[in-house]
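Continuing the series of single-chain predictions for the mutant panel. This is the parent chain; the variants come on the following pages.
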Amino acid sequence: MTHPPNAPAASAARGTAQAPARPAGLPAQPSPAPVAGPPAGRGAWAVGRERLREAATTEPGRLQILGAVLALLVVAFGAVTALEVTGRASAADDVVSRSQPLSADAAALYRSLADADTTAASGFLAGTLEPAQSRARYARDITTASRLLVKAAANTDGSSASAREIATLNEQLPRYTGLVERARAANRQGLPLGGAYLRYANQQMTSALLPAAERLYAAETARLHGDDDSARAWPFLSLALGLLALGALLWAQRRNYARTHRVFNHGLLAATAATAVVLLWLVAAHTVTRAELNGARAHGQESLQVLNTARISSLTARANENLTLVARGAVLTEDGKNDKYEADYTASMGALTTALAAARELADDDAGRAPVDDSAARAADWRERHKDARAKDEAGDYEGALVRVVGAEDSTGRSFDQVDAALERALAHEQSEFTRSAGAARDALTALPLGAAALGILGAAGAVLGINRRLSEYR
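Parent structure:
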């Protein structure tokens, strides 16, 4: 079967045939425009800003933005208040339960060491056989000092200055007690070497142990001051957020009144009330806390420091008074003109008199002034009896001087015990005053963090409900 030779050409001609001509009089039809894509370079942030701008041009959009801002401000105010007040409440609790007790323990440690040194010298002067009462008191002082060192080590950061002082005390205390035991052994044998060992022990106490205990007391007192300052600091960020949130809520209600002539919006009113309550609670609680901490510092903390100084001065004076008789003029001042221990006694008694005068000024009631006055009167008796003992010693009546210093009646030892007992009563009173005031300061902040968080959430919910009430009018 054969095909016509021109068939392919015909097919090509039909494929390239022109379209039929447009009838005359009809206009040309435009080509359809291509579908436009998103503008180049516009991302999610640009689109979001555009939508926000469009929303801000309508009243419903503005109300939605306003509701979000109000809710955010109220929630932020509640959260920041809870966080800041929690920190201050923790600092106030540390003042009551940690830093002040540690400071008091450091002062008690110093007193125990000083009293042990004083008691050791008194027992030495009593003769070759130390009285059982004196030995028991010395053992009690050393046991108390050891217990307080263990307690301080358990509550102190290992890298702090307090830890270094505790390590020094733990290292030096066994050396001191060893020297005292050597002095006792030599004294029982009637050897003059006992006095030398006792002076060495006193030198160890005054040059190593007591300075370390004093630095420990200063470090713990500085920690107490730090906690006290942290607890009394005003929460300025919370106050600023509270005022900002309250101002924004008041403005929103004024705006609502200007547009609707409705006096109250229940949701916004509830949010305003919740914010105002938290703000007033915050101001009142911190005012009470600061007032109580001021009272604790003025009538407790400062009085305790002064009374501790007075008690330490009395212990130092008593130790130097005893060592005056132990050394019998063998240790002189640097200029070589006076007995060193007698000069130190005079300086310590001067410090005691000054501290007692300051303690009486700080005492705010008769219960605090009475033991201070009693201590001052006994200290005056002590000075008179000491003058009598020194006069006998300088006249060569060593036994008479010894009776005036360590005797059972009308002795300087009796006066010292009376001064120490009166100071202990004064310390107990001021400690109770401090604990009461500091505890009241802590209690004023106890419920505020939880209350601020709860009221912040309720206030934010009220703001959202109030704005939604307005939005429902546009639906």
